[in-house]
Amino acid sequence: MANADTLSLAARMGAGRPPTFSFEVFPAKTPEGHEKLVGLVGELCALRPDFISCTYGAGGGSRERTFDVVERIQKQYGVPAVAHLTCVGHSRADIAHILDDLDRRGIRNILALRGDPPAEGAPACSAPDCFAFAHELVQAIRARFGASACIGVAGFPEKHPLAPDADADARFLKHKMDAGADFVITQLFFDPEMYRTYVARLRALGVTARIIPGVLPVVDFRAVERFCARCGAGIPPAMRAVFEPIADDPERTRATGVEFTVRLCRTLLDAGAPGIHLYTLNKREPARTILAAVRPLDAPAL
Q1: Closest Cα to residue 301, out of 3, 6, 1, 4?
Q2: CA proximity to 68, closest of 94, 32, 106, 96
């Protein structure tokens, strides 16, 4: 089994280090789905990613499953894994309990997220010290684990839907970095110019950390449209012109989508992006094909 130093992302995220290539998965809702995910995780680990992250359901509904997956990735496969953790609606006591659980499991790589607010009519946290913002979670993680934790946060090239404007969104990100975050993974986007201007905006504020673009492979254009509508991401007109005519042809959409995604990744890397984080949607393909096309052949093994 890999040791704690090997499983930490801190060295990989340092200035001047090579680009990282990583995957995201989400926990399954059923025992059958979990067994499929276990098989997928093994296949993804065999591709030698720099790390794999696992998402965390709204309000912590999938917390145990998330942590189980992350623990398995690290202990069984020796691959660094990142546990997503949302904080909105949690008290400091809640978060302390969760961080104790992470400590017992040997998990030190955490993506600290605000999370969605409770649905209308749902009970909110009644404690006086409820967490409301991601920077509070970053502070709590850093206070609990010190330098042994590697903390990521989310970035939004098109701004967070709740941010009043792009400049305010950048200041919120800077606040998270000042609280102790180590790196950034962005929300999906499809226009590389958005990423370039986003990074420039953050650098102007003094953010020096690695800002890893999150990339969603285009395999089902209608599904991409629905996903973007939910999260506030846009679809560039040029992209729509490519996929709209073939949206009802699954095979052509998939083939064109893989080519499109590979071009996007290569454009980002050529422009200096410090890696690619692929949202797999719990599928081996086309993530495997895209990774093989964009990762340098001499990329160091784990």
Answers
A1: 6
A2: 106
Q: Which of 24, 71, 136, 158 is catalytic?
A: 24
CATH number at residue 233: 3.20.20.220
Question: Is 135 domain-assigned?
Answer: yes
Residue 244: pLDDT band (50, 70, 90) is: very high
Residue 15: predicted pLDDT: 79
Joined tokens for residue 120: 């209308």
In this structure, what token pair is assigned to residue 149? 């934790």
Percent of the chain with pLDDT over 70: 91
> Where in the sequence is the domain holding 80, given as residue range(s)?
4-294
Give yes or no: 259 in active site.
no
138-164 confidence digits (pLDDT tens)? 999 999 999 999 999 999 999 998 899
300 within a domain of the structure (yes/no): no
Whether residue 302 is contained in a domain is answered as no
Look up the pTM and report it: 0.93
Mean pLDDT value of segment 59-82: 88
Running DSSP on this structure, what letter comes out for residue 19?
A: P
Class of residue 105 by CB neighbours under 10 A (exposed 0-12, middle 13-18, buried 19+): middle
- Cα distances from 258 to residues 82, 218, 276, 283, in angstroms, run 26, 7, 15, 13
User: Total domain count for the chain?
Assistant: 1
299 inside domain: no
